[in-house]
Amino acid sequence: MINLKERILNKHIQVAVIGMGYVGLPLSVALAKSDYKVLGIDCNDSWTKQINAGHSNIGDVPSEVLKKIVDKGYIKASTDYALVAKVDVIIICVPTPLNHFKEPDLSYIINTIEGILPFIRKGIFISLESTTYPGTTEELIVQRIQKEKGWKVGEDFYVCYSPERVDPGNPIYSIGNTPKVVGGSTRVCLELGEALYGSFLPKVVGVKTTQVAEMSKVLENTFRCVNIALVNEMAMMCERMNIDIWEAIKGASSKPFGFMPFYPGPGVGGHCIPLDPLYLSWKAKKYNYFSRFIELAIDINNNMPYYVAYQIAQILGNYGKGMKDSRILLMGMSYKKDVSDIRESPSLEVYAILKRQGAKVDFYDPYVESFKFKEEIIYRIEWSEKSVESYDIISILTNHTNVDYKWLLEHAEIIYDTKNVYGEVESDKVVKLGDNLEYL
Ligand SMILES: NC(=O)c1ccc[n+]([C@@H]2O[C@H](COP(=O)([O-])OP(=O)(O)OC[C@H]3O[C@@H](n4cnc5c(N)ncnc54)[C@H](O)[C@@H]3O)[C@@H](O)[C@H]2O)c1
Q1: Is the pTM above the cut of 0.90?
Q2: CA 370–ligand 1 middle distance (angstroms)
Q3: Does the CB atom of residue 94 touch ligand 1 within 6 A?
Q4: Strand partners, 415
């Protein structure tokens, strides 16, 4: 261990990152910028070829940056697990989705461990970064390796859990200036984890066990999920009470302590907030603990696309139109602003609901060219005065910054704004999520 720690501190180690997606690629770039030679392993052959050619499709890693690093030989991608035989450290960043029954699908982590098992050598240090429920690192990594190899953790191999906090599209916080939590399977493992992450990141927060580190990650995302659900409920309550939720949040946000603003919207999306709390509640059930907070929050957030559809129907009704055959433009398909990621995006759900109700629905998103709906590929509309003017209603579902909302308002018939992009703008043409339509 002393030898490995010294080599980490001297950066005389080879690191493999497994899963080169939204998390793995920025992490590899951060390691490379700190003089580590990174072997990026990904099961997607065409993606590894793209990486080796310096082409990135991940917003936080511009191709120019990746190309320079690849050309200098600091990142090399491959699909070949056998190459981990040469590395000292393996960081795992593979997906942790839900299955059709909304239960954790850990097959990607399991496949990764099975993939590396024949090749790892004594002394290997493994860190899991994928988001998951408390207990995963011990159950799927430590116990599996101990069983297969007969090695002892903390002596023959070392294991940590260190959750990734990357926030794609965030211009202020990136991996380079966000503290990193790390928990070790043993005290020695934690020491190594702190040495590794401390060697290329500004601040490392060590916690006693891998379970604590796993819980800290799902706590962060459950906190967001529950607070978003609370404010979504407040928005629906405010509609009944004819109170402007957006102004109420503005008022409450002026309190310098004890309040943190969250905003209502068409639901939650992405790879984290809709999924991670369900990892926790699933595991808690094994301990005969039912997390009513989590289930309630997921329920409220999942119903928001239906609430959006209900408000759109009401607005159309106020103009003497029905949902059937009305022309509706959805503005923003990605799950949050300034990114192209549409995974779990509530906009997709809003699209499906409105289609089912007989509306003619199109979309525009500066970052998303198309998406698949059933067996059909749906392409974004051409962004022009003529096309924008042809819709009965335009609903803003994602508040991308590079959209000219003033221009849009000039040319739209009516706008349903679920993101408060129009803020204080007073216009009869703008209805906001949570507005009481009886009073319009
Ligand atoms: N995207 C985020 O904002 C974010 C933030 C924090 C944490 N996370 C967590 O990080 C993990 C990874 O998420 P992501 O968004 O980077 O996923 P992603 O889908 O963008 O990337 C995962 C990559 O892993 C590859 N892969 C899948 N199985 C593999 C295997 N067996 N071997 C090698 N490669 C494999 C895929 O081809 C893909 O390129 C998840 O657990 C997620 O919850 C994501």
Answers
A1: yes
A2: 22
A3: yes
A4: 394, 430
